[in-house]
Amino acid sequence: MTGTPRGRRHPRLRPTLRLRLTLLNGVLLVGAGAILVLLSWLLVRDALRPTDELLPGTTVLLADGRSMDAAAWQRQLVDSASGELLAKGLAALLAIGTVGVVGAYAVAGRALRPLHQVTATARRLGETTLDQRISYSGANDEVAELADTFDEMLDRIAAAFEAQKRFVANASHELRTPLAVMRTEIDVTLSDDEADTAEYRRMATVVRDASERANSLVDALLVLARSEAQTGRRLGRRTECDLAAGTLNALSAVRREVERIKLDVQTSLEPAPVVGDPGLLDRLAGNLIENAVRYNHLHGRLWVRTGSDGQRSWLVVGNTGFEVDQADVPGLFEPFRRGGRERTGARGSGLGLSIVRAVCDAHGGTVTAVAQSGGGLEVTVHLPAADAASTGENLAR
User: Fold this and answer.
1) Which of 20, 137, 274, 368 is the most exposed place for a label (fewest CB within 10 A)?
2) CA-to-CA distance for 32 and 19, rounded, in angstroms?
3) How many other β-carbons are positioned within 10 Å of the β-carbon of residue 163?
4) What is the mean pLDDT of the segment spanning 231-239?
5) How confident is the model at residue 62, as a pLDDT?
6) What element of type H or E holds 82?
7) What is the residue-wise DSSP string for 14-41?
8) For residues 286 and 313, is the Cβ–Cβ distance under 8 A?
9) CA distance 71 to 33
């Protein structure tokens, strides 16, 4: 059910844009006409003075044979002509004003028709009507620009709505998988009358692993929500920190996995000072390092570089691994994408690079990725350096 927006009631006669344009056009038209009538009246009164150069007492002989003083005849002539001009001018002004107001109302209505289409489309919008558009085909004017802008906005809203639906569906599926594993293991074990302690221990191990996976997914979703909530706003926490230090901590956290698959790690960790939320920046470095290890292969390579030029600080993380098509790289930053494919049941939550992008956006930075020939990916993060960020914040104040 559609209706008037809350808090705004429309009386029968309200000062609509069409009415205001009509009244403005009418006032301008009548005002201009009134000025023209006034000027004509003044000109006629000044022009009709044929006896001003005659001697006093001069008389004129009228067509009906009457004789009249020239000055009195001039006054009578001026009064008659002025009155007739004023009466006919006002009548013409009334007619022109009426026609002009009616025409302006019709023209304004036709010109503002796309605005009514925008309003009607906005009122019809809903989950099942996001495909509707104005599709204005009139003159290429400001109204057409407004209609096109509204259609583009609807395209973005529809895309965001579809992305949200996919996100909810994927999140539900990811959470349902470990829950289903836990329930299946519990049901199977409890239905086995001959299950011993070892079997219960095995079931407990499976349930623990599945619960850890579900907990990790929930934590990742919370971090993603927290990062996206701060995009375009002032960060809740702003502390000067070093990307190199966070990267070194992330490398230490995956040292055992690196040794297990025998990765060749190459580092060049120059100071990279930035200002931001330390927790989010640590998660950014941790996600990049964890992804580079998780999607690597035995005896692969991992390279990490940090640095700064005074304006920007950067973090580069690259790895070998399975081949990734460059066309699939933008999709890697979408939630629940792993290696350019939407898969569930794989290692990781598929939110790592989504969180990286959200953290970069929240800190006013950028993130790009390049597929490596022979397999693997190199991800580069650029953030405002600490000095540049402090200068920009002071200017904003």
Assistant:
1) 137
2) 20
3) 12
4) 68
5) 75
6) helix 70-111
7) ---HHHHHHHHHHHHHHHHHHHHHHHHH
8) no
9) 32
CB 353 within 8 A of CB 227: no
- How many distinct helices (H) and strands (E) make up the chain? 10, 9
What pLDDT, in 10s, does the model give residues 246-279? 999 889 989 999 999 999 999 999 999 999 888 8
Distance (Å, whole) CA 394 – CA 336: 38
User: Burial of 124 by CB count in 10 Å (0-12 exposed, 13-18 middle, 19+ buried)?
Assistant: exposed
Q: Which residues contact 24 (CB under 8 A, 6 or more apart)?
A: none
Please give the backbone phi and psi of residue 321, each rounded to the nearest 5 degrees, phi first: 160, -160
CB 378 within 8 A of CB 316: yes
Instruction: Using alpha carbons, select from 121, 146, 153, 124 the residue that is nearest to residue 134.
Output: 121
Let me know: does 44 contact 85? Beta carbons within 8 Å. Answer: yes
**CA–CA dist 313, 380 (Å, integer):** 11
Average pLDDT, the chain: 79
For the stretch 362-385, pLDDT in tens is 888 999 999 998 889 999 999 999
Q: Which class for 252: exposed (0-12), middle (13-18), buried (19 or more C-beta within 10 A)?
A: exposed
Polymer length in residues for the chain: 397
- Three-state SS at 65: coil
Distance CA 55, CA 69 (A): 11
Q: Of the candidates 18, 39, 22, 162, which has an alpha carbon nearest to the alpha carbon of residue 93?
A: 39
